[in-house]
Amino acid sequence: MVFERFDKIQKSHNSYVKSFEKNGYLDDKTVKARQKFSNCISELRLAPKLVSTMMELVTSRVDKVKKEENLIRQVCLDAGMSSELFYASFPGNETNFDWLKSIDLDKATLKALEKTEKEIYYSQKSLLEHEEAMKLTIAELKEINKRLE
Question: What is the arithmetic mean of pLDDT over 43-55?
Answer without folding.
Answer: 76
